[in-house]
Design a protein that fits this description.
The chain has 89 residues and is an all-alpha fold. 87% of the residues lie in helices and 0% in strands. The model has no long low-confidence stretch (mean pLDDT 91).
């Protein structure tokens, strides 16, 4: 195994990790921004107001994106296992 091969493998793993986490992070960011704007407009500075909507939104985003996420990680794992003979050389 060469250094380039290991770097390509690590690059692919990081790419899959970022793709898997992106839907929840983007939804959490958007909901947080909307709640922050709402708090600034209404001058309600309740700290717990941000947590419940974010948790619910991230949970819904995860449920919506779950089939795509499972497909992505399954494909990645199958490709990784199928390539094991190439890694041993």
């Amino acid at each position: 195994m060469s250094i380039d091969f290991v770097m390509a493998l690590a690059n692919e793993a990081i790419k899959v990790t970022l793709l898997l986490s992106a839907p929840m992070l983007i939804v959490g960011l958007a909901v947080g921004l909307i709640i922050s704007i709402f708090q600034a407009v209404t001058q309600i500075q309740e700290m717990t107001l941000t947590f419940v909507p974010k948790i619910i939104a991230v949970l819904v985003a995860m449920l919506v994106a779950l089939p795509w996420m499972v497909n992505l990680i399954t494909t990645y794992t199958q490709n990784l296992f199928a390539s094991i003979p190439l890694y041993i050389k």
